Amino acid sequence: MTPATPRTLFxxxxxxxxxxxxxxxxxxxxxxDLHLVHEVTSAQAFTVLRERGLTVRAPHRTVAxxxxxxxxxxxxxxxxxxxxxxxxxxxxxxxxxxxxCEQFGIPLLALGDRRQGIVxxxxxxxxxxxxxMTVVCGDSHTSTHGAFGALAFGIGTSQVGHVLASQCxxxxxxxxxxxxxxxxxxxxVTAKDVILAVCTRLGIGGATGHVIEYRGSAIRAMSMEERxxxxxxxxxxxxxxxxxxxxxxxxxxxxDRPHAPQGAAWDAAIAxxxxxxxxxxxxxxxxxxxxxxxxxxxxxxxxxxxxGMAIDDAIPHPDRLEDRSERENAxxxxxxxxxxxxxxxxxxxxxxxxxxSCTNSRISDLRAAAGMLRGRQVARGVRxxxxxxxxxxxxxxxxxxxxxxxxxxxxxxxxxGCSMCIAMNGDQxxxxxxAVSTSNRNFEGRQGTGGRTLLASPLxxxxxxxxxxxxxxxxxxxAAVA
Amino acid sequence: MSGxxxxxxxxxxxxxxxxxxxxxxIPARFLTTTNRAGLGPNAFHDWRYLSDGSPxxxxxxxxxxxxxAEILVAGQNFGCGSSREHAVWALAGSGxxxxxSSEFADIFRGNALINGLLPIEVTPQVLGVLMxxxxxxxxxxxxxxxxTLTLPDGAVLRFAVPAFSRYSxxxxxxxxxxxxxxxxxxxxxxxxHPASIDTTRLRTHG
Lengths: 482, 206
Ligand code: SF4
Description:
Structural class of chain B: alpha/beta
Radius of gyration of chain B: 20 Å
Number of helices of chain B: 8
Number of strands of chain A: 19
Strand content of chain B: 15-25%
Structural class of chain A: alpha/beta
Number of strands of chain B: 7
Oligomer: heterodimer
Bound molecules: iron/sulfur cluster
Largest sheet of chain B: 7 strands, mixed
């Protein structure tokens, strides 16, 4: 008997879900285990179902929530002081989702539900995201769920319709990219810094056409929440998905979650999940290595997440880029940001700090931020917004008294949702404002027209909040120890 | 196969920027719509209009030569970022039928193909030539059936397009029909792969 060809984790996940294999003429038909739905990318898909007289094939594998355009102030839409045209459009959109879920029999965690939250926060929280699954959502940060050893990727609205109707997507097989990070992260260096360093290394399109598997001792040492932060931003390097093989950390996180298998089914599941690793000798199409020991807190200075730097470095010179259009791109980004190459970012005054988004709005993120804000004040003239990822995270934070720390420090404590990550719900920057955000995108105007975004970890964001300027969080951690 | 719809000639708009993300193609505040139609006027909104709402005369789409152009030529890694299909609807709603770049982001490419907006990948060299060509009336020829792109100087290049997408576009069929046709295989798969979750329990479990 010849030994089986060693396979990567991705290949194992892919093969498990092939309904029809790829041919030269047709893409593969891939089965979807969990379909997450939100208000912004689903309406037109339900319209197609209605027009074609179709039903939802597997409502029990589908769950919807409202997160992108919902208010994060108390009382939902009803609690808003003014109802303008924008609000009316948002109300119409979430009401449309309610009607669609009602008509097609899809469970909906609506605004006001105890389990509502950002779609990528609640899936894992409820135990719906499990190792070995395929997870899709009309949302590019679906890659978050790959932290559980799932093949999870974003799809467009037409594909949302495909999945609703057939529980399948058409896919051509992507390539594989190993990102290996060994070593131990220094104090003040977090999972967010790791993924910002990865994005900076690969560049914004550097992983296009690939699925990333994160490996190495620095990844193994991470909690599930940290792994989610890493996988979340895989798309920022252009990757189709990002994933981490499940291990004891994964199982411990999932055990006893509401939708995790129970009893004998749990034991069987664990036995199966243990096989979900890249075999010794399996080949990746590409490999990249980062030294975890050498990483510093990271921050972005440009207008895409690949334009990052260590916080104690000077802003890189576009001149270093050989390619003319790349250089022009970097110059344009600096002009938009109002920053000068060669300057230090540290010490730059900021206007807003946003704690939130599917990247960094989980309980450990809030604990990290609160730890730095405890006994300190948000600097004068700085607006700090804390938006928990889900109602469950919010309740947990309040149980621990984190809300009081934020409020006493002068920050705003909000209801769960996407909020200023995408600025669809009215939480937004004003033109010209400079923000440090724990979110994932610093594109022009992403957090409000004309707004300028610096992406960083919750620790770095908290350090900026209390000093009012870009600050290496390690200087404040040291102060706390001393 | 009817190739005529997918054999056309047009002037083109040059957008010499790399990494154009879908937030630029259609800013998030326009995503509250529940329709596909109507996004065209807001394509590239924050580049296209000044803060007072008037057209920015410097932006390529506002120049006279953009009138009637059905092809957009843009820098590397076009369509990166968010998965919003609204970006493709906005471009199609602006009259574009093809986008040419040296690289497309994965989700954008898939969305474009499904919606009959043809993504044509060319080498960085060809892209450079197309960007530098400053004759406002330069025209490009696209022939999907033959998979060829005719450059302003008459040179003919072949481009790659997934066979299935090409077939779907030329025959006006779609992915949905294909997937619905796979129902027997899907049912067979489901018999051997029972669901480990049941989201409908969410209705009762607080
Ligand atoms: S938090 Fe931001 S990135 Fe995450 S799902 Fe919401 S809008 Fe998208």
